[in-house]
Amino acid sequence: MTETIAPSEWWRPHVHADRRPFLLARNRVQAALRAFFSADDFMEVDTPALQVSPGNEAHLHAFATEMIGSDGVKETLYLHTSPEFACKKLLAAGERRIFTFAHVYRNREGSPTHQPEFTMLEWYRTGENYDALMRDCREIIACAAEAGRIAKFSYRGLDCDPFAEPERLTVAEAFSRFAGMDLLATINRKGETDAQKLASQASKAGIRIAPDDGWSDIFSRVLVEKIEPRLGIGRATILYEYPISEAALARKTPRSSKVAERFELYACGVELANAFGELTDSKEQRRRFEIEMDEKARIYGERYPLDEDFLAALEIMPQASGAALGFDRLVMLASGASRIEQVMWAPVKWNGR
What we know:
Helix content: 25-40%
Number of strands: 14
Strand content: 15-25%
Radius of gyration: 20 Å
Distance between the termini: 21 Å
Structural class: alpha+beta
């Protein structure tokens, strides 16, 4: 069945009146976070949505458009899936602490926590490791809860105390605890993965395996079915040290070549943020992008161009850590909303309920 965009009836006065308390909470949360970053000497920046590449992760899908020059020559451009490339170019240019509230665009996504256009809060710290971002996340969710005037986050029957210290859990620990699987046994010292070994373990854990599933497909299915619904309950969870194959823009950890400096923040089973100790090796970044685009071509029959300007900027970009947080999702939890469109002033999609 072809999915269509329902009539956007959010503009009807009685619907807007019901949503308005959530929208006012959104404004309070955004103001509070701007103050939070400004107090820590961050510069707010503004990045363009149109890019030569929307991002090079296999399972991220972009909206394409066409730019026509004054000479009539046509060029394909994309709406960005994240402001990451532009932000890192600004770090290469000399900025040291930056943040942005960026409208971003992702295709092929839809759920009570997804919209094709949404707001992403991204921030970067140069010369600091990603532990600093973990501390930021703890303070950000508390700040949002205070601004939203809410004592606890609740979503689909799950509760989370936004003022409690988040639990820190490695991905390997989560696979062991929630799925009974030894994830690192399926990765060798070079970071190469073994799909057969992972499939065998996943089948025993009750995960459906398709004949053409790759290691990444199985990893994602275990994460979605067995792990994510159990994260961020009671208090937030920081899930960290992702396998290197699942961290296309993150550097390896100093302690192991199997895992990378990547973490995700969860509350009430909802993924809120994704953070990296940033990879600055342009040759390695190119290699990973090409692997991702080969995988995209295999699964979806398409690939996106590489941003050569971005790869060149990596060569002079300082060591940094960066995080991307789904601002609308955070506002959902901080305002008590049940669906993402309730906290958007003018949502693209509307489910009519």
